[in-house]
Each structure stands twice: as structure tokens, then as C-alpha cells.
Write a structure and sequence with these properties.
352 residues; alpha/beta; seven-stranded parallel β-sheet; three-stranded parallel β-sheet; 14 helices; binds D-malate
Length: 352
Amino acid sequence: PLAAEVFRNRGVEVDEITGMSPEELIACIGNYDGLAIRSSTKATADVLAAAPNLKVIGRAGIGVDNVDVLAATQSGTVVMNTPFGNSITTAEHAIAMLLALARDLPQASASTHAGKWEKSRFMGVEVTGKTLGLIGCGNIGSVVADRAQGLKMKVLAFDPFLSVERAAELGVEKVELDEMFPRADFITLHTPLNDATRGIINADSIAKMKTGVRIINCARGGLLVEEDLRAAIDAGQVAGAAVDVFSSEPAKENALFGSDAVVATPHLGASTTEAQVNVAVQVAEQMADYLLTGAITNALNMASVSAEEAPRLKPYFSLARELGSFAGQLTESALQSVHIEYQGHVAGLNTR
Ligand code: MLT
């Protein structure tokens, strides 16, 4: 509701529709200039093909797994997300999962509710003085590092995009994965899912880890091979895992389900009142800015354009859109020469 209020206050007409089937979305999307979504609506190539007027897709959240970004780019549609709005909330969930895992909180709670009073069954571990390995140290990972240091943990970080200066500023030790695996008592994932990260936790990487390691995943399900993790838990190599995200969601069945050593939540990483307000307001502001002025922030398939630059560049957006759809029909080599011509044109534009 807050996002709709932002749009209306900015003079953008808005329809609030939830729970549509893919077919219903395809049937109505042709009427709209913008599509604001959370995680369950899929902006597929079919949706984009049915949306000749669509100029922007705004994802109230971080992951754009539910948007076909390539198809959007080919149709000249800007895809935006809100990379900062829920990062604190997600980092807090990872820390909550870490502590829940260290002290068997969900299992102990269920047992106590059942009147069992199993005091000797639940023997936890302290986190003070333990080593936490971060895989990914960006917007969310860096907040996790800060909070973990408050819990007196030593933090190792693997992130190819983390500079040595930034690592020093965060007080973390920048390491390679092979260096982290034998040292970390806890490992937490904070990276997007892509070809480089898919299945990064698997039987081979687990074999390099400390026996008794605990693994937390509040990022994306496909980062770990669930069957391999379950086998390692059952074998005692991994002491436990806390997972908020699954390879297939909503997860009704999963290799990790049914293990007492697994804490599971239904993708609640961003589920706080504060984060939902942040992402709703931010996505509506960003989309309204683009639709009304051409200014672009937090786009995944286009560079940022400030409100000052937008009026000068706006006429070229339709040119770029035409070039994009034309390029879709070209061969690789023809595409290369169009790309070079276009770069030259932009360079000329910038110097004028
Ligand atoms: C995100 O990508 O923003 C989070 O995983 C939360 C969500 O998908 O809703």
C-alpha cells in the first residue's frame, strides 16, 4: 500500500493487483508502463513479449531471479532493484540463524512446547572466539561481519570484489575459499546465484571444511547442493545447517527436511516491517523518477542517469530501444559493428 501511495503522490496512476496467474499477467501487462513486483511474480520473456509499452520493472527487494533480465534488455525495459532496503534485515536473519543453530533453539522450543523438558538433549556451542567464514562480503555480508564482530567472532571473507582496503576497514581477513574452509567454525553465504557461485557448497568443498562446521544460507538456495549437505550432516562432517532459501521455492519437499540438525525458515530474510517499507517506498520512488523524468537509479541493465542528465538523454532512450530490438535480429559479427558505431555515437554525444 505504501508503494501505491508514493506512485499516486507523484502523479503516476497505479493498479494494485496481487495473486495473478502468469496468464492473467500476460493478458493485462500490455496496458502498463511499469511493473512493480516482489518475489513471486515472474517477469518472463513471455510477459515481456506481451508488454510493448513496458518501460521499467521494479523489484522491491534484491534478487532478480524472477526477472528475465536479458529479455528485458532486449526489449529496452529497465530493470531496477533496491539493493540496500533489506540488507540489514537479511543480515540480522543470518545472525539469528547462526545463534539458533549454535543453541538448537527451534528444536528446544518445539520440545519444550511438547512438555518434554529435555534439558540434557540440547548442548550448544559458544560463538565467542569462533571463526566465521563469509562467502560474499557486499551489502549484506559486510553487515553480518560487523554484527559477528560484536559477538566477538573472528571473520574471514571470501569475495573477489572485496578490496584489501575495504577488508581492513571492515576488520575482516580477506581469504581464498581453500584457506577459509579448514579454518571456519561457521560459514555463511551472502552472494548472488550465478554461474560462478551455483553449487559452491558441495561434497568437494565440504570435504575441505573443518569437521563440525555449521553452515548458514540466507542468500539463494542453489548456492549449496542440498543432497551433498544432507549427506555430510548425516555423516557427522557438518554439525548443522540453518537455511532460509531452497533450490526450489516454495519448498514443499527438500533433501534437508527432516534432519534434527537443520534449522529451516521459509525465505524470511527480508521479512521485517522495516525492510518491507524500505523496499516498497524505494522501488516506487525509483520507478516514478524514471517514468516521470528519465532518471535511473539501481538499474541492473543500464547505467545510472541523474535527474539533471535525464532530459538531455531521454530522446536517445527510444533510439537505444530500437537499436536493441534491431540488434536482436543480427548475427554476432553485425552486432559487433553496430555496437562499435553506437559507442562512437555516444562518445560524440558526450563531447558535444
Ligand atoms: C531479496 O532478494 O530481496 C530477498 O531474498 C527477499 C525476497 O526475495 O523477497
